[in-house]
Amino acid sequence: MTKRRGLLVLVAVLVLAAGVLLAYRAWDPGSIRGSFDVGNRSLYLECVGEGSPTIVMETGNGGDHTAWEDVVPSVRDTNQTCTYDRANLGASDSAPTPRTSADVVEDLHGLLTVAGIPAPYVLVGHSFGGISMRLYAATYPDEVAGLVLVDPTPTTFVDDACAIVDATACESMGAEFDPSLNEGLDIVGSADALLAAGPLPAVPLVVLVADDHSQDAITDTGVLQRFETMWQGRQQELATTVPEGRMELVASGHNIHNLVPDVVAEAIRSVLSEARSTSLPGPRFFLASLFSSPEAGVDGSGFWTGRSGLHGRVEEVAR
Questions:
Q1: How far apart are the C-alpha atoms of 237 and 231, rounded to whole Å?
Q2: Of 5-9, 41-45, 159-163, 269-273, which gets the smallest average pLDDT?
Q3: Cys-Cys link to 169, which of 33, 91, 165, 271 (CB 3.0-4.6 A)?
Q4: Are the beta carbons of 271 and 125 closer than 8 angstroms?
């Protein structure tokens, strides 16, 4: 009798758990939380919300998917939003090192494919993640609807910085790019891979740039000002690589997504709006517009094509 009662309790618990899961999926039909095999190892992925294009976020050095927890709630209501752990981070498996952004892009492309997350994507990358997202866009241009780069690392950062700071500071900054300190990532090799890649696709691009990069290695205020001028100049160059790309100067430190997450969320919404408003009308666009509804699973986004207009607009964003 006791054994039977225990079995009934177990069945009841399982039924309750299944009901909770079904209710959760009904409340958040785009939700995904789990690990996916990308070839003899797994990567951890979380997606919430629904709606296309899907927003895919890439962290900076050493950051796992939780780095975006202040931004995700502000954009998930209108678009599926995905974060993940790179190899050697968080809940993902380890991978041989050193690695470059080329490995990161291959992993991410495989993860999105295996998890059944279809393009198009709006790619969001912070710091080193900006290099990887730029390389993804250059490698798979037809999959990308837009880009938001959050204080991305310039590909020429080490050389640029060492031309400004003294030898001690240069050595200190260079040491920070040692693959053994960066989850096994070779950042210089990643920059080289990006420089060798093709151009970015002509999609909406916002480059958010912090105005304060104070750090222990730079103690002279004049040197810091020259550093900020260099950093902003490189970001402005990046913003002009696509039509209507723009740079927004943000009153913030390097981790804009944590310090002023609303600014990042607004930039994502802006890119989504631009991607939709510049879609070419055509058969797919017309049909999608007719049947645009959550029930139909179509959002009317249509095609994303080339843009035209002013280059490299600069906007200041207050904290």
A1: 10
A2: 5-9
A3: 165
A4: no
**Nearest alpha-carbon partner for 247 in 291, 302, 290, 207:** 207
What span, in angstroms and rounded, lies between the C-alpha atoms of 31 and 108?
A: 18
- Taking only the tens place, the pLDDT of each residue in 279-304 is 544 333 333 333 333 333 333 333 33
Cα first-last separation, the chain = 66
For residues 133 and 109, the answer to whether their CB atoms sit within 8 Å is no
Q: Report the interhelical angle of 101-114 vs 128-139 (nearest 10°).
A: 60
Residue in the block written with tokens 């204080």: 151
Spatial separation of the C-alpha atoms in residues 155 and 15, rounded to whole Å: 53
Residue 188 CA from chain centroid, whole number: 20
125 SS3 class? strand
Report field, pTM of the whole predicted structure over 0.85: no
pLDDT, position 30: 65
Identify whether the C-beta of residue 123 lies closer than 8 Å to the C-beta of residue 146. Answer: yes
Q: Where are the alpha helices (DSSP H) in 101-220?
A: 101-114, 128-139, 157-162, 167-175, 187-196
**Domains, the chain, ranges and CATH?**
29-317 (3.40.50.1820)
Q: Of 150, 152, 185, nearest to 258 (Cα)?
A: 150
Spatial separation of the C-alpha atoms in residues 18 and 26, rounded to whole Å: 12
185/217 Cα distance (integer angstroms): 22
